[in-house]
Design a protein that fits this description.
The protein is of the alpha/beta class and 219 residues long. It has 6 helices and 11 strands. A hairpin with a 2-residue loop joins strand 1 and strand 2.
Length: 219
């Protein structure tokens, strides 16, 4: 699904967190967002997800305006900021609760997602006993378990060891091959460059440039 930002500005109180953003996120591609903390990366993902509405301009997905035509994208998986689940539930039952909202995947699909992120031996462990890396892995499983058309991953390699980073790379590549449209942010520029088809740089809510196929261009 193609995603377009058309002159999008988002203001929170008196602060402009996204400043007249224009970009196109191509269907089936991996788009990277690069910038320091507070630059606006997560806010852009929140706008795509329909969690916040643009103050000015439009976020359009395949011709449908988010916040006007529909409140949320119809097929979306996301992990924004720090994953949060119920401490008293194990990994499987946390994912089962989420899956029950749409009711489109089975228990076996959930187990497959748990195995995919390397949590098969901890699937019955209570979430409160998870390490930070395990919590991150469960967040990734939640984002991809329903094979959504759009996947938003905000710093997916946080708290992961080298094996976990390779797991993220593998899953992102597999989801792209499946045809998903992926938006990813990552502090590690090498990882972001390796995965992304195009990278937009963001400073103080403004898109300042992009890198595509090894060539730089200014906005």
């Amino acid at each position: 699904m193609a995603i377009e930002f058309k002159n999008v500005t988002k203001k929170i109180k008196k602060n402009t967190v996204i400043n007249n953003a224009n970009l196109t996120i191509e269907t089936g591609k991996i788009t990277g967002l690069q910038g320091i903390n507070g630059s606006g990366k997560t806010m852009m993902m929140r706008l795509i997800a329909g969690l916040i509405k643009a103050t000015e301009g439009e976020v359009v997905i395949d011709g449908i305006i988010i916040g006007k035509d529909i409140d949320f994208p119809l097929s979306l998986g996301m992990m924004l900021e720090n994953p949060a689940f119920l401490n008293s539930y194990d990994g499987f039952h946390n994912l089962r609760l989420l899956a029950d909202i749409n009711g489109i995947i089975s228990d076996s699909d959930i187990y497959e997602s748990i195995n995919r992120v390397g949590l098969d031996e901890a699937k019955n462990k209570k979430y409160k006993k998870y390490s930070l890396g395990m919590k991150q892995r469960l967040g990734i499983a939640a984002a991809v378990m329903e094979s959504p058309d759009i996947i938003l991953l905000d710093e997916p390699t946080n708290s992961l060891d080298s094996e976990g980073v390779e797991m993220v790379k593998r899953i992102v590549s597999e989801e792209k091959a499946r045809g998903a449209t992926i938006v990813i942010s990552c502090h590690d520029t090498a990882i972001l460059s390796e995965l992304s088809d195009i990278i937009y740089t963001i400073e103080s809510g403004k898109i300042t440039g992009c890198i595509k196929n090894g060539s730089d261009s200014e906005q």
